[in-house]
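Database export, one record per block. Field names are fixed; values are copied verbatim from the stored entry.
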Amino acid sequence: MDRRQHRRTGATAVTVGILLGLGTAATGCTGSGAAAEDVKGPSDPVTALHRAADALRDAGSSKAGTSMEMATGGTRVTIRGKGVYDYRRRLGRLTVLLPEDPAGASEHRPITELLAPGALYMKNRGAGVPADKWVRVETATLSDGNLVTGGATDPFAAAEVLRGTREATFVERTEVAGIPVRHYRGTADLGRAVRYASAENKASLAAAAKGFATAAVPFDAYLDDEGRIRKLRQRFSFVNGRQRASVAVASTLLLYDFGVPADVRLPAPTDIYAGRIAEDDTGGSA
């Protein structure tokens, strides 16, 4: 195995530990019950959801807040992130905060994540990686396509999952952070999402469609009057590699301040770690 291949394989093993390791340690039809109230938006909920990713691209950029929750063994683990995303360039930057260890004894340094087409870059990941270096992971090599592994779902990839919506219902008109929105509830199919996804996300979503316990993704989506996602909660199901048990993960996105500057720059090749990644406390190893 050459050095480059070793780096990619090792990084993948360690990255999976961000979420899966924490869990181990914690041991189409449409409908509208209130369609008459939804006079400003598309009459078909499925159509509105299929267009959500395009509406984000048209918006250009936004700030993003992320939350990922997993309940296992009676304990709930939550990973939070905050940053910006450029929907036209498909580039994002998030600062991800890991929870305390189950014993509550130690704190984790915030992890900086850069989201790019086909790749995830992480800084302050630990596991023997120097503090000034980045780890690069090819998202198509991850069994979940990086919808859950990094502890934060790529906002544009999450929106593209909605392209696979098979059924959805308009729930109500409500507000998110003071912004009027329409609340839709439905289920997307990852296999269908792959067929309609952008070229940049096809491989990652295809990996998720094969790697998750089920390709069905239940969701609650809140779209503003321009069709942009303001809040999106998706529920993924994966198989814990250690316990071979199905684990449910809830990923929530909050998008706001559309049009904000989002200057995301990827690391230079010399800033990417090329050495061996040590075995970490989640059991991942090179």
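Remark 1: The helical segments are 3-25, 45-50, 52-59, 155-161, 190-196, 199-211.
Remark 2: The chain has a mean pLDDT of 81.
End of record.
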